[in-house]
């Protein structure tokens, strides 16, 4: 399979990825980073109503194929591409962008897939806040859906510009526990 086909499959593989993060969690990322410059896996509705990033990449833009910049908020699509988690693929892209100085820092919302190799590897390397309880994501019609089926983790990639683990812990302290 060609790289273009794999990237397109990642973007379109789940039945729907139109579940939006409640604003209080995006606001925590905004407090930590100061503002959100980019949401690379978004849509106009989510950005207008919840994220309010300076720039977004939609499915049509394919955020996996673009360079990222500034402070990044990322709620990647669920589902799989082949035998790989889409969340892993997007998280690794964020790590690449921050490590290479393209993005300044990032907060990534992930399913807390404890026991899955991809998640365990990330949790051993990067600071995470594991949300206590389950998030009620927002449906496209603006109502809250049922609770998530799995827990949620917020992973922080501070980059060279980032404020660090202590600030991350301070900002996210009221929503869960930490892996460090």
State the gist of this model:
It is built from six helices and eleven strands.
Structure description:
There is one protein chain. The protein is an alpha+beta fold and 180 residues long. It has one domain: Rossmann fold. The protein has 6 helices and 11 strands. The strands form 4 sheets. It has a 5-stranded mixed sheet with strand order 3-6-10-7-11, with helices on both faces. It has a two-stranded parallel sheet with strand order 1-2. It has a two-stranded antiparallel sheet with strand order 4-5. Strand 4 and strand 5 form a beta hairpin. The N and C termini lie far apart (39 Å).
Please name the defining characteristics of this protein:
180 residues, alpha+beta, 5-stranded mixed β-sheet, 6 helices, 33% helix, globular, Rossmann fold
Summed up, the helix count is 6
Radius of gyration: 15 Å
CATH fold field value:
Rossmann fold
Number of domains: 1
How far apart are the termini?
A: 39 Å
**Spatial order of the strands in the main sheet?**
3-6-10-7-11
Number of strands: 11
- Average per-residue pLDDT, rounded, comes to 88
Strand content is 15-25%
Shape: globular
CATH architecture: 3-Layer(aba) Sandwich
């Amino acid at each position: 399979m060609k790289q273009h086909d794999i990237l397109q499959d990642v973007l379109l593989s789940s039945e729907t990825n139109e579940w939006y993060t409640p604003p209080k969690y995006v606001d925590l990322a905004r407090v930590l980073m100061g503002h959100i410059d980019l949401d690379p896996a978004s849509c106009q509705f989510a950005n207008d109503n919840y994220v309010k990033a300076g720039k977004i990449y939609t499915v049509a833009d394919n955020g996996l194929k673009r360079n990222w910049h500034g402070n990044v908020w990322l709620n990647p699509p669920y589902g799989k591409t082949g035998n790989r988690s889409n969340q892993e693929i997007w998280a690794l892209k964020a790590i690449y962008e921050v490590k290479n100085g393209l993005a300044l820092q990032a907060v990534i919302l992930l399913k807390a897939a404890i026991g899955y190799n991809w998640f365990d590897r990330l949790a051993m390397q990067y600071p995470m806040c594991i949300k206590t309880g389950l998030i009620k994501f927002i449906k496209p019609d603006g109502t809250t859906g049922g609770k998530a089926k799995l827990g949620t983790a917020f992973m922080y990639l501070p980059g060279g510009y980032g404020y660090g683990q202590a600030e991350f812990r301070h900002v996210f302290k009221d929503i869960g526990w930490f892996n460090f």
